[in-house]
């Protein structure tokens, strides 16, 4: 199932003195099963863009289609689209409202008009998918949970719709480093185990780089770069201009390269960097020995 | 969907209306509202409309944008109009089943609608051209003389500042929670009245929780900065009455008094 966005332009508060163009001629395609990161500074249009993908905002200018269904068409089954494309907002714990965890997770599937048994099954699966113990949490009040757990429950609330595409807007905002790593790991597991398309929105390069295969870089409502992660990191100057830093290890590799050490400048994990640097040092050592000899 | 509401919104610009002292504007709007209730002829309303029109033009805001502030209240205006048309006794013009349209009804319906529109436009122009801080500063200064008889002027102004400050925040929050629930298949747009009210629970519960959380955080933040009310508190920007304020206020008083006296009976 592909998401196709073509020449999408969107203006907030159109026709008022406060009008602001949030998206400007944005086009891209996301294929089934991709793991894509959308990155950009605050106000670059990321949030506006993803709200188009499940028809929370209908395209004014340009086209958005999901699975061949045009979201701008008059008679679109919005519920069906939102079932297919699950969107987890920033601070999703703010949307939790029911008295128990299980009841809140059931809100989505119940809206789909499923039978009680099917709803119960989905709730159980969704809570398990985010890595929480269903039996332990199902009867508890959401507000008794820790911040990190509550966020997982909110994500489960979207997962219970069993979407084919899962979009997460800044899922790690406000979490401590350990909570962040755990959540990212869980998102990766969901991607691998559920076989869904995942779109991860963030302003943090460090975090996205480890996760996704393809990056879309947004800048002032336009797509500045779109491609495989490593290709994007080659454009360090452009990224700096946009106000996004490449990961620290990529910066290190680049500086080593400037100093004459032959390392690949697109590394971004510690393990990769170790291998690259050792290999490069080995070459240098060898050359030095060669010169001596 | 909620971003079409312009009540309480301030549009910064440089214009003679924007730069007037907030007290001048509050005073002028109050007078205008009083005049609207005293004048009882269409000609009088025509003159007031002209006066308001000049003020809107002077503010430099697009006329259509100012007119948009009527939109959220259109239903109330239509309701008033219809109620007046059918409920006022008088000479029957038209029979619609058991309902009758009377000449006095038509007259009063139109009159009331114009009055409402002018009321909304005048107050909107005030909030559109005055930043919330200046607005509440103005209110506080106007109420200051009544402190002696126990009116908590500063507290009232502070409450107003906070309320105005949080209108856009809460609207944004409403929009976000609404969208988050819609992403989970919630439907806020169809169904009968009872069903619709029930559908609001997933919106209202998180909204209240977040409003209380914000209030709590704000109180802590204010206490952390040693807020202790009015006592010994000074203002960063002082309000100054300039010549233009005196002229504007005198012109308003003269114009409105004239209109009221002329078209009172």
Please describe what this structure looks like:
The complex is a heterodimer of chains A (293) and B (265). With 293 residues, chain A is an alpha/beta fold. Chain A folds into two domains: 244 residues, Rossmann fold, CATH 3.40.50; 47 residues, no CATH class. Chain A has a six-stranded mixed sheet, sandwiched between helices. The mean pLDDT of chain A is 89. Chain B is mainly α and 265 residues long. Chain B folds into two domains: 158 residues, no CATH class; 82 residues, no CATH class. Chain B is 68% helix and 3% strand. Chain B is built from eleven helices and two strands. In chain B, strands 1-2 form a two-stranded antiparallel ribbon. The model of chain B has no long low-confidence stretch (mean pLDDT 88). Classes of the chains: A alpha/beta (293), B mainly alpha (265). At the A-B interface, α2, β6 and α3 of A face α8 and α10 of B.
List the helices and strands and how they pair.
The complex is a heterodimer of chains A (293) and B (265).
Chain A: E1 3-12, E2 20-30, E3 35-39, H1 46-53, E4 61-66, E5 69-70, H2 78-84, E6 85-88, H3 101-111, H4 116-129, H5 134-137, H6 147-159, E7 165-169, H7 177-194, E8 197-202, H8 205-211, E9 214-219, E10 222-228, H9 229-233, H10 236-242, H11 248-258, H12 270-292
Parallel strand pairs in A: 3-8, 3-9, 6-7, 7-8
Antiparallel strand pairs in A: 1-2, 1-4, 4-5, 9-10
Helix pairs in contact in A: 3-4, 3-6, 4-6
Chain B: H1 16-19, H2 22-38, H3 42-59, H4 63-67, H5 74-87, E1 92-96, E2 99-102, H6 103-129, H7 132-143, H8 153-183, H9 193-199, H10 201-224, H11 243-263
Helix pairs in contact in B: 2-6, 2-11, 3-6, 3-11, 5-6, 7-8, 8-10
């Amino acid at each position: 199932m592909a998401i196709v966005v073509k020449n999408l332009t969107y203006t907030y508060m159109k026709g008022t003195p406060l009008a602001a163009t949030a998206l400007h001629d944005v086009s891209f395609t996301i294929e089934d099963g991709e793991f894509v990161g959308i990155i950009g500074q605050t106000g670059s249009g990321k949030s506006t863009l993803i709200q188009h993908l499940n028809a929370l905002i209908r395209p004014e200018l340009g086209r958005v289609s999901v699975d061949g269904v045009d979201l701008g068409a008059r008679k679109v089954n919005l519920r069906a689209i939102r079932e297919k494309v699950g969107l987890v907002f920033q601070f999703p714990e703010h949307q939790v409202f029911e008295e128990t965890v299980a009841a809140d997770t059931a809100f989505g599937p119940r809206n789909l008009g499923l039978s009680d048994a099917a709803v119960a099954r989905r709730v159980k699966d969704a809570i398990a998918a985010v890595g929480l113990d269903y039996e332990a949490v199902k009867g508890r009040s959401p507000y008794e949970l820790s911040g990190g757990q509550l966020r997982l429950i909110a994500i489960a609330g979207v997962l219970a719709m069993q979407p084919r595409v899962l979009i997460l807007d800044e899922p790690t905002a406000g979490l401590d480093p350990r909570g962040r790593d755990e959540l990212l790991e869980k998102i990766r597991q969901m991607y691998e185990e559920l076989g869904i398309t995942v779109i991860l929105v963030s302003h943090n390069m460090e975090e996205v780089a480890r996760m996704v295969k393809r990056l879309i870089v947004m800048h002032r409502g336009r797509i500045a770069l779109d491609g495989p992660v490593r290709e994007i990191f080659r454009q360090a100057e452009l990224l700096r201009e946009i106000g996004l830093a490449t990961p620290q290890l990529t910066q290190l590799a680049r500086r080593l390269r400037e100093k004459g050490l032959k390392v690949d400048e697109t590394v971004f994990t510690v393990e990769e960097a170790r291998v690259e640097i050792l290999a490069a040092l080995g070459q240098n050592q060898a050359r030095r020995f060669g010169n001596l000899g | 969907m909620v971003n079409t509401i312009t009540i309480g919104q301030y549009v910064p610009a440089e214009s003679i209306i924007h730069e007037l002292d907030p007290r001048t504007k509050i005073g002028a709007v109050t007078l205008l509202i009083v005049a609207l209730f005293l004048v009882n002829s269409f000609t009088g309303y025509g003159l007031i409309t002209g006066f308001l029109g000049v003020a809107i033009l002077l503010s430099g805001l697009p006329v259509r944008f100012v007119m948009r502030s009527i939109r959220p209240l259109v239903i109330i205006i239509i309701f008033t109009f219809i109620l007046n048309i059918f409920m006022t006794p008088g000479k029957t013009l038209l029979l619609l089943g058991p309902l009758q349209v009377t000449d006095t009804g038509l007259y009063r319906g139109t009159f009331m609608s114009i009055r409402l529109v002018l009321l909304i436009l005048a107050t909107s122009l005030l909030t559109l051209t005055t930043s919330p801080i200046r607005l509440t500063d103005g209110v506080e200064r106007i109420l200051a003389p009544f402190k002696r008889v126990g009116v908590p002027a500063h507290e009232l102004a502070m409450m107003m500042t906070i309320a105005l400050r949080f209108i856009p925040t809460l609207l944004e929050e409403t929009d976000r929670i609404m969208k988050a629930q819609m992403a989970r298949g919630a439907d806020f747009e169809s169904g009968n009245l009872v069903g619709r009210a029930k559908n609001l629970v997933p919106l209202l519960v998180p909204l209240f929780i977040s409003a209380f959380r914000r209030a709590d955080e704000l109180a802590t933040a204010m206490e952390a900065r040693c807020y202790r009310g009015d006592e010994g508190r000074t203002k960063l920007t002082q309000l100054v009455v300039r010549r233009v304020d005196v002229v504007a206020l005198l012109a308003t008083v003269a114009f409105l008094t004239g209109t009221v006296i002329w078209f009172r009976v």
